[in-house]
Amino acid sequence: MAQQAIETDVVIIGAGPVGLFAVFELGLLDMKAHLIDILDKPGGQCAELYPEKPIYDIPGMPEVSGQQLTDQLMAQAAPFNPEFHFNRMVTGLEKKADGSWQVTTDEDEVFTCKVVVIAAGGGSFQPKKPPVPGIEAFEQSNSSDGNGVHYAVRKMEAFRDKDILISGGGDSALDWVLNLQPIAKSMTLVHRRDEFRAAPDSVNKMRALVASGDVNLHIGQITELQGDGGALTGASLKPKEGDPLVLPCTSFLPFFGLTMKLGPIADWGLNLNENLVEVDTEKFATDQDGIYAVGDINTYPGKLKLILSGFHEVALMAHDAFKRVHPDQKLTFQYTTSSTSLQKKLGVQ
C-alpha cells in the first residue's frame, strides 16, 4: 500500500469529548485539524463504553448522556470541517528539521503538521484477547486481508467469501454477524452461553439466521486455533455439552470488549508520570516543542480528571498553538458573543 501524505495545521490524537472541543477552539483561531482515533466513531470512552450513561457536571447541561454530548460537540465542531481518521493507531511520531512533526499511522498515512495535540483519554482502546494459546501467530494487521485473527473490521470487503468465525455475545459480535453474513462463505457464532448482551433486535435477527441455516451457533469456548505459517484453517471448540469439535474457519473475529492502555505514546520520548503525560498549566505543553496533551491523558499539580477541566485546557492550548501555526500573525483575543468575525466563522446569521 502506498503511503498517503497529508498536510494540516494540527493533528489531534483522540476523538473523545476533549479532542472534539479542541477542533472548535482551534478553528476559532483559523487552525485546521485532522483527528485520529483507534475507535470506529467519535466520542471516545463516552460513546464507546457509556453512550447512555448520564453525565451531570457539564456546565449548562444538568444532565446529558455520553452520546448526546458527543453529538453536540460534533455539531459545534462542524463549521470547521474537521477530518476524521477512525480505526487507526498512531505508530510513529518524528520531529523534522524545520520543527514540524510527522505523524504516521498503521494505515500507512503520514501527516505533516506544526502542532500535535494528544487527547487520548486514558490511552488507546485495545481489544481484550481471548485466552487462546498461540493466537498471536494468526493475528493480522493488514486490513485488506480478511484471513487470520482480527479484532476489528475495518474493510468489510476483505471478508468476502471467507469462512468466518465470530466469538462473543455483545453488540459488536452480533452486529458483525449480521453485517458480514451476506458476503461470507460461511458464518459461525460462538458464545459461552445461550444468552446475549446485545440489543434484542440484533439477537432476534441472529436467531432467525440460525433457524434458516445461514448462521451456525455453538455454545462453548474456542480453545485452540489450527493452521500453518499463519494461515488459519480451523478452531477447536469445547462445547458446553458434548464432545469437542473443530470448526472450519479462515477468519476469526473475537469480540471480548476493550481495555485501556497507554500504547505507543509510551515510546514517544515524552516525560511521563505514572503513565500520564506531564504538562505545564500555562499552555498544557509537553516537554517536546509543538506537542500538547489535554484531558485525562495529562497530569500536573492539582489535576482533576473531569471533562470540563479538559475543555479549559483546550482553550489555553489553542492560544499557544496559534503562535506556532501562525507565527507572523498577532492574536487578538475575542469573545464569540460580540465578535462578528468569530460569528462569521460559526455561520451565525
- Count, helices: 7
Shape: elongated
Major sheet characteristics: 7 strands, mixed
The secondary-structure element order is EEHEHEEHEEEEEEEEHEHEEEEEEEEEHH
CATH homologous superfamily designation of the largest domain: FAD/NAD(P)-binding domain
Widest sheet: strand order? 12-18-13-14-15-16-17
**Number of domain units:** 2
Mean residue pLDDT = 91
Report on this structure.
The chain is an alpha/beta fold. The chain has 2 domains: 4-125 and 259-345, FAD/NAD(P)-binding domain; 129-256, FAD/NAD(P)-binding domain (3-Layer(bba) Sandwich), CATH 3.50.50.60. Helix content is 22%, strand content 29%. The chain contains 7 helices and 23 strands. It has helices spanning 17-28, 44-48, 66-77, 171-180, 200-212, 307-325, 340-345; strands at 4-7, 10-13, 33-36, 54-55, 64-65, 83-85, 90-95, 101-105, 109-113, 115-118, 124-127, 148-149, 163-167, 186-191, 216-228, 231-239, 245-248, 251-254, 258-261, 272-273, 276-278, 291-293, 298-299. The protein has a 7-stranded mixed β-sheet, with helices on one face. It has a 5-stranded parallel β-sheet with strand order 6-3-2-10-22, with helices on one face. Strands 1-9-8-7 form a 4-stranded mixed β-sheet, with no helix packed on it. A hairpin with a 2-residue loop joins strand 15 and strand 16. Helix 1 packs parallel to helix 3. The two termini are 45 Å apart. The mean pLDDT is 91.
